[in-house]
Design goal:
The complex is a heterotrimer of chains A (299), B (427) and C (275). Chain A is an all-alpha fold. Chain A is built from 15 helices and two strands. The longest helix of chain A is centred in the first third of the chain and has 34 residues. Chain B folds into two domains: 179 residues, Periplasmic binding protein-like II (D-Maltodextrin-Binding Protein, domain 2, 3-Layer(aba) Sandwich), CATH 3.40.190.10; 195 residues, Periplasmic binding protein-like II (D-Maltodextrin-Binding Protein, domain 2). Chain B starts with a helix and ends with a helix. Chain B has 17 helices and twelve strands. In chain B, strand 1, helix 2 and strand 2 form a beta-alpha-beta unit. Chain C has two domains: 41 residues; 212 residues, MetI-like fold (Orthogonal Bundle), CATH 1.10.3720. The chains are: A mainly alpha (299), B alpha/beta (427), C mainly alpha (275). At the A-B interface, loops of A face helix 3 and helix 16 of B.
């Protein structure tokens, strides 16, 4: 068997299409982009090498630090809440019989919709004149549309209110994805294992704790890395709900990159932000894999 | 087994190429250059079929007329995106040497971006032909499009930022049209006591608030050119005074101004929930379209305390690498011919750039008022955020004004902040 | 036994509340799409006064949503098929085949997930323009496919790794070739994984706007997200038309999703996982 799995030709056949495509289409532009980060490049004029200048400006850029802060907040928030809610929902849904598909589909539904459209929808819902504030007012709190919180424009606090709003909305949208990943993995656990544990007198909660959790641990690492990368690169929802405003208070790395690169055509500078983002993603994924994916279980 | 896989792969590939083949053949006439027709592209920031914007619909007419009249000689293909992604796409096309032959561009730093590297071509030669230039109202319409004495873009129409007001509410509150700053505050006060919301504005869409700030700065005598070259300072008290005035005025804004978007703020006005809207004249079509009874109730006055008006024009550039300059010039002429300019005034509600005679009866009532304001003004100036050295500086100004409004900064802080920004980035 | 049913009630109550939070905003979109644009400002939460199909008609004809849906379908389905084949092959190679650089190549693929798409947009576009791949659906399929690979590989590696060794061993003993092991043993077992990744990539590509916007100029080759953005005007947005267009755009996704999801779940309960 070992010989079969070490067959060089087989390895080439399996890996070549993916590797070639990836290298040509993605890796080369990534390298180009890294090069641009050392250039003054406005996209419409040829790049001009300026060394570390972009990075120097970057570390003096106030908005960049706000973006780092918000992105890190987003990272922690989404990793923690997606893990808890995703596991909770997956656990609950695998343990009920009636309506499992219905609930699963409903919760997964926002994942199939475009963030751009949903961002618009939520912007409407949080707008002071006819959003939830108005709804609460109609339900009996007088003057709430005036006195209620300015969901997307409040600027107080270390992490501003709009960031929390966006974080919750993105949890709402993407928790279905984590849930699906966990459910897919749980459904692969052999039924005998569960039956054996019930015979031994385990409660459902205990089975979840001692059988399900350890067995889906690799998937936890996978889903968490996906979350982490996704949240660091998070763009659509922020851009459509606040565009990084008011006054850059809700800027995250990806929106800052987009504004600098495309709105102000500082493509070289934007590439530098992209490189920082790439490095952060690498660090976080390495960290998650080290901490979460400690050992593999044989099923 | 292996053969099966390969067969499966091949068949999917075939299906794929078939589908894409379909897509390619669907585009039809794009490759008909052998028949002698000169094909050019025109790039614009609104979809001509799905739009409700009256000016965009007017451009659609122009394109259709052009293609019909020049059938067999010229043909223009339209490429559109929405405004949000317009420059992203345009820059990508420029970067890959596929610059559209004719493209729209905002005057100001954005136009500068295309003029300085030589992407946009100077148009003086074409303007000189057949007395085209003489059809324009004056040379002043080209001010924002001129670099080193050469004209790089053709303006198509002018919109002016004015104060629109609800005449019924003014009457009910016993308010006259204000002509200076004190009267403005007084008028707002009276409107408020009469139970109306005096002003509707959007701080959620930063440029709306910034437009008012621009007027206030102009009233204080802020000199943007001197600020850019460093001979004046933002901290000379003028911006502080303007920002303080903005705060005084903000007492009369609708209570949800901080979160309302431009759409909402404008809707407040035409749904008669507020007395004054400070907005560009492009909003006329939108207002009359949404509330048909509103035209009779809507008056216009000049922003009090300033003798100039903020004006903005849609401008078209021609690529310096175009293979069909004559076709481009012919297209540009269609945009400024009498039919197009008449439409601009009578339907679009914007100010024409040529001396066309149009039927004032047909034009929306508000246009006549805007024209009055425009002709009584001592001159025009651009949007503040489009008159600064870079687009980013303009956005920074917008953001700073929103911060002042939200109470994050005092007017003095705002001045310090702008000065620091200019010192670091603009001089 | 009684205690159990109480916990069941709590579970269902929780799920029902969740379901309401999920469905309510979407129902609101549906409701608004039957209104006139002015009504959205006067009574955003009320039922439509005079329900109208005009928005849908306008969105369908003016937005050219029919051809856009077809384009999106072509692009996404082809991308889906190829990314599943190429991606799971590479994942199998990384997870199961024994060679030194397996781990490293996984990290290499992961780079693709970490780079923001905005960074590679211009380099990729200029490259594609040179070879004449812009303004064609193939020019969209290739980047979509490549962007789908990392996530497909990443998730499928997890699935292949967690498969019991004995399976492959016994197949080996039966004299199966490596290709047979992959297509006949491992791939069917990774069906749930394929379904989830397939769904993720399909949905991601279905909603992708930036590339489609920049790469496609021809009106007849635009995909759905680009067509949706047509309703955003330069100075004002017609929300009711846009919401109608959004409804039209999501219906195919939901249909496809429902069709597939039930099939997969049926397959699971029928005992596909024998362990």
């Amino acid at each position: 068997m070992d010989k079969l799995l070490r067959n060089k030709k087989a390895i080439a056949v399996f890996m070549a299409p993916g590797l070639i495509l990836f290298t040509v289409i993605l890796f080369v532009p990534i390298c180009q982009s890294v090069y641009y980060s050392f250039c003054e490049y406005k996209a419409i004029t040829p790049p001009e090498f300026i060394g570390l200048e972009n990075y120097k400006t970057l570390f003096k850029d106030k908005t960049f630090w706000i973006a780092i802060k918000n992105s890190l907040f987003f990272l922690v928030f989404s990793c923690v809440t997606q893990l808890i809610m995703g596991l909770l929902l997956a656990g609950l849904l695998t343990n009920i019989d009636k309506g499992r598909n219905l609930f699963k589909n409903i919760i997964y539904l926002p994942c199939v919709l475009s963030s751009a459209a949903l961002g618009l929808l939520w912007m409407f819902i949080f707008s002071p004149q006819f959003g939830i504030n108005k709804l609460i007012e109609t339900l009996g709190v007088p003057n709430y549309s005036v006195d209620g919180p300015l969901w997307l424009m409040d600027t107080n606090g270390f992490i501003v209110l709009p960031m929390w709003v966006i974080a919750f909305v993105s949890l709402w949208q993407y928790v279905g994805q984590s849930m699906m990943l966990y459910m897919a993995q749980i459904s692969g656990i052999s039924k005998e294992l569960y039956e054996a544990s019930y015979i031994d007198g385990c409660t459902k909660a205990k089975t979840f704790r001692f059988i399900t959790l350890p067995l889906i641990r690799p998937m936890v690492a996978t889903a968490m890395s996906l979350n982490a990368i996704g949240s660091l690169k998070f763009f659509d929802m922020v851009y459509n709900m606040t565009e990084g405003g008011p006054n850059h208070m809700t800027e995250v790395l990806a929106t800052h990159l987009y504004q600098q690169g495309f709105k102000y055509t500082k493509y070289g500078y934007a590439s530098a932000i992209g490189v920082v983002l790439l490095v952060m993603c690498l660090l976080v994924t390495a960290f998650i894999n080290k901490v979460v994916k400690t050992e593999q279980y044989e099923m | 087994m292996k053969k099966k896989i390969i067969a499966a792969l091949m068949s999917t590939l075939m299906v794929a190429s078939m589908f894409t083949g379909c897509g390619a053949s669907g585009s039809g006439d794009s490759g008909s250059s052998d028949s002698g027709v000169e094909e050019i592209t025109w790039m614009f920031w609104d979809d001509l079929n799905a739009t409700e914007d009256l000016i965009s619909l007017g451009y659609k007419d122009v394109i259709d007329r052009f293609n019909a009249d020049y059938e067999g000689q010229y043909h223009v293909n339209v490429v559109t995106t929405n405004l949000e992604d317009y420059y992203t796409k345009l820059n990508a096309l420029v970067a890959s040497n596929e610059t559209p032959d004719v493209f729209i561009c905002s005057p100001g730093p954005q136009l500068t971006d295309y003029v300085e590297p030589g992407i946009a071509a100077p148009l003086d030669d074409y303007l000189a032909q057949d007395g085209w230039k003489d059809t324009f109202t004056s040379d002043a319409v080209f001010t924002q499009q001129t670099y080193d004495g050469k004209i790089y873009a053709i303006p198509l129409n002018t919109a002016a930022a004015c104060c629109f007001y609800n005449t019924e509410m003014f009457e009910a509150a016993g308010v006259e049209v204000p002509t200076n700053w004190d009267e403005m505050l007084d008028a707002c006060d009276k409107l408020q006591s009469a139970g109306y919301t005096p002003i509707t504005i959007s701080a959620g869409t930063a440029w709306c608030l910034s437009m008012v700030a621009g007027y206030l700065c102009e009233a204080e005598g802020v000199d943007l050119a001197a600020l850019a070259d460093g001979s004046a300072s933002w901290e000379d008290g003028k911006l502080e005074a303007a920002a303080t005035k903005l705060m005084d005025l903000s007492k009369y804004f609708q209570s949800t101004a901080a979160g309302d978007t431009n759409d909402v703020a404008t809707a407040n006005f035409y749904n008669e929930q507020a007395a004054i809207l400070i907005q560009g004249s492009w909003a006329i079509g939108q207002m009359n379209g949404a509330n048909a009874d509103f035209e009779d109730k809507c008056g216009v006055f000049q922003f009090p305390g300033v003798d100039k008006v903020i004006a903005k024009s849609d401008s078209l550039c021609v690529s310096s690498t175009t293979k069909h300059p004559e076709a481009c010039a012919a297209l540009l002429k269609y945009f400024t011919d009498d039919t197009a300019q008449k439409y601009t005034a009578e339907v679009g509600g914007k100010i024409p750039v040529t001396n066309v005679e149009y039927d004032a009866e047909k034009a929306p009532a508000q246009l006549a008022y805007v024209m009055d304001v425009f002709s009584n003004a001592k001159g025009t100036f651009g949007f503040y955020n489009e008159s600064m050295p870079t687009t980013e500086t303009g956005s920074h100004f917008d953001d700073t004004m929103v911060s002042v409004f939200l109470g994050q900064m005092t007017p003095a802080d705002a001045a310090t902040d702008m000065e620091e920004y200019y010192a670091a980035n603009c001089r | 036994m009684k205690k159990l049913s109480i916990s069941k009630i709590i579970i269902y109550l929780f799920l029902i509340i969740m379901a309401i939070i999920y469905v309510a905003p979407l129902l609101w979109v549906l409701m608004v799409s039957f209104k006139e644009n002015a009504e959205i400002y006067t009574s955003p939460f009320g039922l439509p006064k005079a329900p109208t199909f005009e928005n849908f008609k306008f969105a369908w004809t003016a937005g050219k949503l029919g051809i856009a849906t077809l384009n999106s379908f072509i692009v996404c389905v082809i991308t889906l098929i190829f990314s599943m084949i190429i991606g799971s092959m590479a994942a199998f190679g990384i997870a199961r085949l024994r060679w030194k650089l397996a781990r490293l190549s996984l990290t290499y693929f992961l780079l693709g997930m970490m780079i923001p798409v905005h960074c590679v947009l211009i380099p990729l576009f200029t490259r594609f323009a040179k070879v004449g791949l812009t303004n064609s659906l193939i020019g969209l399929i290739i980047p979509y496919l490549t962007f789908s690979l990392p996530i497909t590989i990443f998730i499928m590696v997890g699935f292949f790794e967690s498969m019991p060794n004995e399976l492959i061993e016994s197949a080996c003993i039966d004299g199966a070739t490596i290709y047979e092991i992959f297509f006949k043993v491992c791939l069917p077992l990774g069906k749930t994984g394929l379904f989830v990744t397939g769904l993720m990539t399909f949905v991601g590509n279905w909603n992708e706007l930036l590339f489609a916007m920049v790469f496609i100029s021809d009106d007849l080759k635009k995909t759905l997200p680009v067509s949706l953005s047509k309703f955003v005007g330069p100075y004002n947005t017609n929300y009711t038309q846009m919401f109608a267009a959004i409804i039209i755009a999501i219906i195919p996704t939901i249909v496809v999703y429902c069709a597939f999801s039930n099939q997969i779940v049926d397959g699971l309960t029928a005992g596909a996982v024998k362990g």
